[in-house]
Design a protein that fits this description.
alpha+beta, Beta-Lactamase, Helix Hairpins, 6-stranded antiparallel sheet
Length: about 725
């Protein structure tokens, strides 16, 4: 009845109904592992949620604002760069014009010096007038140098090994011979009196008495205009201050650089530091522009062009202009490098304002978007959660929403659907309850009747089968009792034979035991004799050693006797005839002593051999003793085995006697058993005939009851299936 109790609990009144408010957040209870897994799964589908789509939609609306800010910043930056580039180019052009004026003045000055009477008279005069005219020409050169503040020095390098020089470090008198084959001289010769500009002339500087400072230099071939003959070189050096004075009046921004580069790549560079232009040391590779790849790009550009390139790790506006005079190109290039950071501030202000307004717009759009998206998403998620619970069978859910839009209508429709499903499940549960109760009653009654008939049928069948089996077994019992009688007789004969064999075995075992005992006694006697031999051999060895010692003493005495006989012979020879008889005696004594020594040596050898043989006898005897000890152990074990065999055989004889007696009793009971079995067989056949008739009638009743029971089981299965389906729902 537990199933019906569960159904009654499922359809209790609506006191357990749960209301889900779509306007309040869901419970903050800790998530179960299943919920965490579900949350993880939902997170994977986050991009497909309505909330994400709404937020993305609001974010898309901010893209035009962002694009407007970027375009405004780029437009302002481009405009500022263009304006700055134009202003810088105008400033550079102004400097170029000023340089053109300066270089034109210097070129005119070179013409003035070239065609002056003082110079022409001097280079055309003969040797008698040369000293006087040289002084006049020298004064003129110095006057011109002092007159123009831009001139560093004017030099006349003549081919008559004379030099007129206004430099404080004049050329050596023999400089012409050393310089007539240099590059600058060859260029001047090719130009045939036309001037050309150079950045520096190191070969000429090396011929001066000391270092000089200059920024520009103009050189031309000096000729006698009356004869058009070559006379030497005219060299005019210009101070670096002349260029600095020209560019000091313009400002291209802090950190801006101006480079005046000659054809020989002499780089005269200035940088605006603070409020003044500072001459840079271009010997330092940091400032020498001609050694940098950017100079190659500038050289390939057209005149008065503008570039935006990275220089010294920072973006610069790069402008350049070629410097020319009325006589033509001077070969000088004026390059300006202006950091764009000087005028990016205005563009940055526009960019900053654009970023601020863009961020404000994005923030407002996101706040509105998040509010709307979260509100809609929250209600939809709660509706989805409620429908999922309904899908899992929980019909106690009731949704609540104060929204007046489509979500409110959807909530009301879902509530009506859940209510109708709840009523349907309640009705189905009541019907299932009644069906289960009826099927239980029928099934129980039918099962009880079926069990009774089955037990009766089984009992009758058992009785019938038992009777038949009993009759059959009785007949088989008679036959088997005959076989058993034959086997009992055979066992009786075998038991008699076993008794005879066991008696013979006991006799043989006793004989073997006596033999082993004799063997043990003999082995012990042999062991004692062997130990006696070992003791005697050891004692013999001891006596041999004593004899050896005595022989050694005898040998020593013989040696002493021999020595005394020798001494006596010596004394007898000293005594002469009186001691001759004593000498004969001494000789005999000596011979006896030698014979005694020889005999003792032979005895020592014999004793040693005897000792060796004695040692070998002792070793053999000891080995025999060890073997005899092992033999004694084996004999003792054999004796123990024979004693165990003898004891076991005695017990076997007793058991054989008992078997023989039992077989005789079995023969007595056999005949009585056969008679009883014949009687049982006759009665069993009569019982079997009666039980077969009763069993046939019982089988017919049992078949009808089992068919009824199968119908009740089908009804019960259907009721349980309906109940299982209803249990899914919580109403």
């Amino acid at each position: 009845m537990k199933i019906f109790k569960g159904i009654k609990e499922k359809i209790k009144p609506d006191s357990n109904m749960e209301t889900i408010d779509l306007n309040t957040p869901t419970s903050d209870s800790p998530p179960t592992p299943e919920k965490r897994e579900k949350t993880k799964f939902d997170f994977k589908k986050y991009l497909h949620s309505i909330r994400t789509k709404l937020i993305i939609s609001f974010l898309i609306t901010t893209i035009p604002i962002i694009m407007l800010g970027i375009l405004s910043y780029n437009s302002a930056l481009k405009s500022v760069k263009g304006t700055a580039a134009d202003a810088s180019m105008e400033s550079l052009n102004q400097v170029t014009k000023n340089l053109q004026i300066l270089l034109t003045d210097i070129e005119n000055l070179s013409d003035e010096v070239y065609y002056s009477n003082q110079v022409q008279k001097y280079i055309a005069a003969d040797s008698s007038m040369a000293p006087e005219l040289e002084s006049v020409a020298s004064d003129y050169i110095k006057f011109i140098t002092n007159l123009d503040k831009h001139i560093s020095s004017i030099t006349l390098l003549l081919n008559n090994n004379h030099v007129i020089d206004s430099s404080p470090e004049p050329l050596n008198k023999d400089a012409y011979e050393k310089l007539k084959n240099i590059y600058h001289y060859n260029v001047a010769y090719e130009l045939d009196g036309e001037s050309f500009w150079v950045g520096e002339h190191p070969e000429i500087d090396q011929q001066r008495s000391g270092p000089t400072e200059y920024g520009l230099s103009i050189i031309r071939l000096l000729k006698d205009i009356s004869t058009d003959e070559e006379r030497g070189l005219l060299i005019i050096d210009i101070k670096p201050d002349a260029v600095e004075e020209i560019i000091s009046d313009i400002s291209m921004g802090l950190g801006a650089e101006l480079h005046l580069i000659a054809t020989d790549k002499r780089d005269l560079a200035f940088e605006l530091q603070g409020d003044e232009m500072v001459l840079l040391d271009t010997k330092d590779s940091t400032y020498k522009l001609t050694d940098k790849p950017i100079f190659q790009k500038i050289s390939k550009e057209q005149n008065n062009s503008t570039l935006f390139e990275n220089y010294q790790g920072e973006e610069h506006i790069i402008i350049h202009s070629e410097v020319s005079t009325e006589k033509g190109d001077t070969g000088y290039i004026l390059i300006g490098l202006v950091p764009t950071s000087n005028f990016n501030a205005a563009a940055r202000d526009i960019g900053t304002n654009s970023v601020i307004f863009t961020l404000i717009a994005i923030t407002v759009a996101l706040c509105i978007g998040f509010y709307i998206a979260i509100k809609i998403s929250k209600e939809i998620n709660q509706i989805v959660d409620a429908t999922n619970r309904v899908a899992d069978g929980d019909l106690t859910v009731t949704l609540y929403s104060d929204s007046q839009d489509e979500l409110g209508v959807l909530t009301e429709s879902i509530n009506k659907m859940i209510e109708r499903m709840r009523n349907l499940i309640k009705n189905a549960a009541n019907t299932a309850l009644k069906v289960l109760e009826a099927s239980k009653t029928v099934a129980a009654t039918t099962k009880q009747v079926s069990d009774v008939f089955r037990e009766v049928s089984s009992t009758i069948q058992d009785v019938s089968a038992g009777s038949s089996v009993q009759a059959s077994d009785s007949e088989k019992g008679v036959s088997r009792m005959g076989d058993l009688a034959l086997k009992i007789n055979a066992v009786s004969d075998s038991a008699s034979s076993i008794e005879e064999y066991s008696n013979e075995t006991i006799r043989l075992t006793n004989n073997g035991l006596n033999s082993v005992i004799d063997l043990e006694n003999k082995a012990k006697e042999t062991t004692n004799i062997t130990r006696t031999i070992i003791a005697d051999a050891q004692e013999l060895n001891t006596h041999s050693q004593s004899i050896g010692k005595i022989v050694k003493v005898i040998n020593v005495i013989a040696e002493q006797t021999n020595l005394l006989a020798l001494n006596a012979a010596i004394e007898a020879s000293r005594a002469g005839d009186a001691g001759r008889g004593f000498a004969v005696v001494a000789e005999e004594v000596r011979k006896l002593a030698e014979q005694s020594a020889a005999a003792t040596r032979e005895i020592a050898v014999i004793i040693k051999d005897t000792q060796n043989q004695t040692d070998r006898v002792v070793e053999s005897a000891e080995a025999s003793d060890n073997i005899l000890q092992l033999q004694n152990i084996a004999v003792e074990k054999t004796l123990a085995v024979f004693r165990n065999i003898s004891s076991s055989m005695k017990e076997l004889g007793q058991k054989v006697n008992q078997i023989t007696e039992g077989i005789e009793e079995m023969n007595n009971y056999k005949d009585n058993t056969i008679t009883a079995i014949h009687n049982i067989s006759a009665v069993s056949q009569e019982i079997a005939a009666s039980t077969q008739e009763v069993s046939a009638a019982t089988e017919e009743q049992l078949s009808s009851i089992e068919q009824l029971l199968s119908y009740t089981k089908e009804l019960d299965d259907a009721a349980h299936s309906l109940n299982d389906s209803i249990q899914i729902f919580k109403v």
